[in-house]
Structure formats: structure tokens, C-alpha cells
Amino acid sequence: VFDDEEESKLSYTEIYQEYQALVEKLLEGYLKEVGINEEKFQEAFSSPLAKTHTSQAVLQTVLAAEDFRLFKEMMVQKNIEMQLQAIRIIKERNGVLPDCLTDGSDVFSEIEQQEMKILREVLRKSKEEYEIEQERKRTEE
């Protein structure tokens, strides 16, 4: 859904709100599980150790729930990673990339259409795995 355009779409806001609710729910569950109250978490979150580059990378998903710009950057990056993964799969299966991925052509041959089908299947599988994981988490709670 997310692209690298400067202007954000309305659908981004809806997804962001769902993301915020999910992060809040997961964080509350985790804090309860490990026996840390919100106040202690806030202290740890604002400690100097939490400000290191490594800690910031780990906490990025939590921080993104409070910062739409960071959330959008994270989603755009994830889309790029998924596209690159799909391109690698296409290249592995065929040995080369189709012309439409190398010279900007919009005309798809039969092979290229099959490759697009593979790309859609990779994205569908990724979404399916995500939904299964979310359902598993809901069941555990």
C-alpha cells in the first residue's frame, strides 16, 4: 500500500491507526507478562542505554506507533524489501530479469506475465503468513 510519494493517502492513516492499536496491545501484554508497569517502562525507554543506535533500531517499531513519519518510512522500506525479494525469486527461477524490470518497458511477454503471477503469489503468501501469525497471537492471549 505504501509508496515513496511525499503526499500521504487516507488509507495510510487508517493503517497507521490499526498499527498504533496493535503495538499498544502487544506492548501492554508484554509488560504484563514480564511484570513491568508502564512507569518503569517509560524510565527504561528514556534511559541513556535506550538512546544508542542499536537500541533505537530495536525500538523503531515501538517508536513508529508514536511517529507517523517514521511509520511511513518503515512501511515504504518494507515494501522495497518485498519487491527486491520478489525480483530475486524471479531472477533465480529464470536466470535473468525480464526486460520490463530492466529497461522500463511496460509490455509484458507471456514469461513476464508468469513472473508477475509469481510476484503476486509471494505477496499473497507474505500476507497470509502475517494473518496466521496475528491469529496465533490473538489465540494465545
UniProtKB/TrEMBL annotation:
GO terms for cellular component: axoneme; ciliary base. Its main location: other. This is Cilia- and flagella-associated protein 36. It comes from the Eukaryota. Residues 109-140 form a coiled coil. Signal peptide: none annotated. It comes from Struthio camelus australis. It is found in: Cell projection, Cilium; Cytoplasm. Belongs to the CFAP36 family. The keyword tRNA processing does not apply.
